Every structure is written in structure tokens, then in C-alpha cells.
Amino acid sequence: MKVLIYSHFFALMQTVVQRPQIIEEVGKRARERARHRFSLDQMIEEHFNLYSSIVSPNLPRSEAASQVQ
Asked: pLDDT at residue 43 above 60?
């Protein structure tokens, strides 16, 4: 199993050496994904859902939201 992982890693590193611009491309995609995944709105929604499920586990989200407001 380890040999397979090392072989795959080596192949990826060869690609990066042959195409250095790939680092910038992958970096841009990762940055955009992180901005979307960890945006303020996304974090607020996920925390709200978590707290709602703890405080009112049997209520649908919409009813839990009306209780908070």
C-alpha cells in the first residue's frame, strides 16, 4: 500500500516539476474553495444550525429560527 502511495506522490511531483504553473492554478482553486467554504455567511449558517439542533432538536429549522428571532 505504501509503495502505491509513494508512486502516486512521485508521479504528482513529476507533473509539478514539468508544469510549474500548475502550482498557481491549484493554489487559486484552493483559495476560492476556502473563501466559499469558510465565508462569514456560511459560518453563521452552520453555527446557527448546530445551536438550533442542540436547543430544539425536534423542531424543523424554520421553527427553530422563529424562536431565536
From this structure: yes
Mean pLDDT calculated for residue range 13-20: 90
pTM confidence score: 0.49
Residues ≥6 apart with Cβ < 8 Å to 22: 15, 16
Give the three cell numbers for residue 24. 498557481
All cell numbers assigned to 7: 508512486
The helix-helix angle for 21-37 and 2-18 (nearest 10°) equals: 110
Q: Which three cell numbers stand for residue 47?
A: 453555527
State the Cα–Cα distance between residues 12 and 18, nearest whole angstrom: 10
Mean pLDDT of 4-31: 90
Q: How far apart are the first and last CA of the chain?
A: 53
